[in-house]
Amino acid sequence: MATPGDAGFGRIRHLRMLGGRLAGLRLAPMHAGLRYALAAAAVGLGALLRWEMPEVLGSMPYLAFYPAVVASAAFGGAGPGLLATFGSALCVHLFFVAPYGHLDVFEPLELLRIVIFVVSGVGISMVAGMWQTARARERRQAAEVVRSRAELAEINATLEQRAEQLRHLAVELTQAEQRERRRVAAVLHDHLQQLLVAARLQVGVARKGPDPRASLPSVDDLLSEALAATRSLTAELSPSILHTGRLSEALQWLAQWVADKHGLTVQVEADAAVDLPEDVRTMLFQAARELLFNVVKHAGVERATLHLCCAGEGEARLTVADEGAGSDPTLFGQARADGGFGLHSIRERLELLGGRMEVDTTPGRGTRVTLVVPQPGETLPAGVSA
Asked: Is residue 316 pLDDT above 50, yes or no?
């Protein structure tokens, strides 16, 4: 299905194509040498016309050269127009006005004709030059307008895409929050609450019995189990080491927790020098837990690896790998049906942090997922929190 972002990027391509055409018109003017050569050719054509029509143009020798001046100025600009003007005047004076081959002007009428022709040619050339300058300015302005519109359309399309990502991510996070609330409620009701009810019953029995102290050990065991359950639940929701230590220490804790809870052995290779902000640490920790949970559910193996290191260009890389069943690469990045913190959310949250997710998986050959985020000092989007 097409999205608003797709339509926006389609408009961008159209505007860029139009801008390129306008820019091409501006950046591909006639070569200067060719313009002056055409002006010289126009003067030659005027001379040939005057030579072939002496009866018609004999009393008006400059009339045959006005078209040469106009054409040179119109197509070449002020410079070629001036060349045609003075070249025509020189050609007329040398070849079509007696005494031929001399530059001396003896007749006042002839001098007046030369002055009128030169002034007219200069005026035509200047007007044509200003006209061409105005046209070039208009083409530049049109190209700038199209380019600005393309840039604005690109920015709008990017903002629409980001807004759509944020809306989708907000829905997923709300669903994940509700799912976590239901899980916590189930733990409290099915485990912790039952322990507290059993402890209360034991206390009631002790009150009615002859020796209340005989029930104290069982009550103590029940309360100890309830305390352990609350500690486990607290650790699952927000491990304290994630907020007080480095990500490498949190990953070691996560490996032990996964081994105790799911029986998956996780080998951790973590560079302690990787120092990330707390929001980025939290996001990577949650993503690693989700990826290890996917290994437990789908990979069909008993071992996995976590590798945290500093990469080049100011990046930190966290890799979760297994040698299990693998998967179709096209399935990665799709949203989870249960509304959890799935791979789709991981990819989108990484992109909002300026990072990315790299997936290498093949059916039957395992899966390797690498999460890449900027190191401190790199630019992160303002206001983005994991």
From this structure: yes
